[in-house]
Amino acid sequence: MLAIEKSKSHKGNCTPNVLPCRINHNGAVDASRRYWNPTKTPDGKTVAYFRGRKLHGKQVMVPKGYRGAVVSTTDRILPKSTPPVGDDEVEEVEEEVDVKIMEEQSDFDHIMLWGHEALPDEVTDPYVRGIEEWIALAGQIHSISDENAESKD
Question: CB under 8 Å to 3, separation ≥6 — which residues?
Answer without folding.
Answer: 78, 99, 100, 101, 102
